[in-house]
Design goal:
The chain has helices at residues 93-101, 103-112; strands spanning 50-55, 59-64, 87-90, 115-118, 124-125. It has 126 residues and is an alpha+beta fold. The chain has a three-stranded antiparallel β-sheet, with no helix packed on it. It has a two-stranded antiparallel sheet with strand order 1-2. It is flat, with a radius of gyration of 38 Å.
Amino acid sequence: MESKPPPYNPNMPQSTMSPPPPYQPMPPPPSYHPGPNPPPIGFIPTANTSIYTQNSTYGAIPVVVQPVRATDVIVVGGCPACRVGVLSEEFTLPGLCCAFWFFPIGVLCCLAMKERRCTNCGAIFT
């Protein structure tokens, strides 16, 4: 049942594999041809500005650039009435009473009855 491994013979013939071929350098990349000149620094597109790009296989693709007005700043959580203040959330007295008297379900009622108040104009939003 026990078989012995074959004996080591240093005179065994070498393999017939040849060395790998020498390194062949890659050809240089194709020359770069830049497209049309970019718009000048400070270019502000108007409402009807259209930029057309040319792709050699697909044809002209229209790209419409929408202007961005610098005066419009959107503040997340900002007051919709005065657009200056920030809305802070406060719990109402009835909501706190519901949370106290009807404990497990009352907490959900308390969270649903929060009101938002503007820090600038004092407007209340429910």
